[in-house]
Amino acid sequence: MKLEVFDTTLRDGEQTPGISLTPSEKLQIARKLDEIGVNTIEAGSAITSQGEREAIRGITHEGLNAKIASFARTLTQDIDYCIDCDVDMVNIVVPTSSLHMEYKLKKSPEEVLAISNNVTEYAVDHGLKVMLSAEDSTRSDMDFLKQIFKGAIEAGAHGICPCDTVSMLTPDKSKNFFAELSKLGVPVSTHCHNDFGLATANTIFGVMGGAKEIHVTVNGIGERAGNASLEEVIVSLHTFYENYETDIILNQLYDTSKLVSRLTGAYLQPNKAIVGENAFAHESGIHADGVLKKASTYEPIMPELVGHRRKFVLGKHVGTKGLQNRLEELGIYTTNAELATIFNKVKDLADKGKTVTDADVQAIADYVMNIEEDAKVNLQEVTIVSGNRVTPTASVKLGLDDKMVLEAGIGVGPVDAAINAVNKGVKEFADVRLEEYHVDAITGGADALIDVIVKLRLGNNVISARSTQPDIINASVEAYIIGVNRLLEIEKKKYE
Question: How far is residue 366's CA from residue 51's CA, in Å, rounded to a whole number?
């Protein structure tokens, strides 16, 4: 059976505390949602503000394949704003629980029913498709809920959505609940929140009960504990329930997740199912060995299915197979004896509570294998000018193979200036990007040793590099140059 996907990232998702998207950011996300096959995009709530209406209009005028919807209350003014934004449909939300009617609306059930019917009819008469959503439906009287929905259907609503606003459903209740409402003769949508961590399960069981459309958000963002997660619901249906299908392009889910996380600023926990950075990461030696032999031993799906990637993390739980795999990715091939020695040294470092970076592994391997590093880039000199009335400026002298290069750079601080100067010096070899910068004082006092860790990217290759020195600028520049040399070495080995 074909299911429709209604994405409310730009409305319910934006109600996450701390999230506020600009019109251009909303448009970027809408384009991506359309690209991956979302059927309906709830672009926002037109009544909210002029900026919100500008954002919605920008999306409706973009010519996307997806239908564009706006949220609305049971007020004709809300409908007028939706019309003004040229949306295809309106999601009219009416509270239906006695709790909401008595304490929030301060209206009787009869009054709520009349208002719901009138506003639905008004929207339909003005050319809008209408989905009537019942807020707090899972704490509502079922007879009254049916009465509300029947009234809306008679007024012209094309679909209904009983919202599990505060997550009162369980999977078994969800199946029965949606089965009962599916008897009303129009498409029923799920809208599940995640206060008890059951939103994905409740959505799937709602589908099994007869729901034809699923409401989701990217990364499960939303108020309180969030909404049903797009990626979790879609991949679960794909993996476990072959009778259901959607238009979603699965291998775009990871990229979509990263885009939404970046634009919203909403932190994505590493262990987030399907799209978290650790979703396909392995440290344990047993697990890494199994995955290398047969991925399905410890991976329920291939990471490529959702556009993700597998990675092996080096730490105290690493096994020899995982370490060997990472060494070979770095272009380091060892004998069994060398591997055993490197393995023990990596374990020792991890036992001290240290993060074992690629630079650490490379340095250990170089020592064990007695490799003399043939660095393409060597730092000869670095000079810094900085102060409270001076733009931080750095000059560097670099040895690049057999020639000397002098470059200067400015920055927001002396470290930034020095790194900018180095980048200018190596630009003929590589466009290196600084992705992360971390600094710690690892001893006490004014003469503390400074530990600098950088994460650098060159194309698809990302490595970490470290330097420990008393001077933060020298440590930063050295770590950066170590990383540049590692990246250049990796690039070189690709073509050998």
Answer: 57
Check: CB of residue 424 under 8 Å from CB of residue 434.
no
Residue 273 in domain: no
Average pLDDT, the chain: 88
Residue 217 pairs in a beta bridge with 229
Predicted structure pTM score? 0.70
Residues whose CB is less than 8 angstroms from the CB of residue 155 and which lie 6 or more positions away in sequence, other chains included: 117, 120, 121, 124, 130
Split at pLDDT 50, 70, 90, the class of 246 is very high
Please give the pLDDT value at position 378: 83
Question: Are residues 219 and 289 located together in one domain of the fold?
Answer: no
Q: Are residues 17 and 124 in the same domain?
A: yes
Domain that holds residue 414: 377-494
CA pair distance 313, 294, nearest whole angstrom? 18
pLDDT value at 167 more than 50:
yes
31 vs 281: which has the higher pLDDT = 31
Structure tokens at 51: 């900026």
> Residue 227: is its pLDDT beyond 80?
yes
Strand, helix or coil at 371?
coil
The CA-based angle 220-224-225, given to 5 degrees, is 45
- Can you give the CATH number for the domain in which 244 is found? 3.20.20.70
Query: Could you tell me which residues come within 8 angstroms of residue 495 by beta carbon, excluding any fewer than 6 positions away?
Result: none
How many separate domains does the chain show? 3
CA atoms within 13 A on the CB side of 349: 19
Q: Examine residue 269 and state whether it is found in any structural domain, yes or no.
A: no
HSE (CB half, 13 Å, CA atoms) of 145? 24
Same domain, 96 and 233: yes
* Model confidence at 393: pLDDT above 90: yes
Q: Any residues with CB less than 8 A from the CB of 109 and at least 6 apart, and which?
A: 98, 101, 144
Q: What is the pLDDT averaged over residues 458-464?
A: 81
Torsion sign, CA atoms 125, 128, 130, 135:
negative
Could you tell me if 184 and 249 lie in one domain?
yes
| Size of the chain in residues | 496
Residue 193 has pLDDT above 60, yes or no: yes
pLDDT score at 448: 54
Strands 40-45 and 67-72: parallel
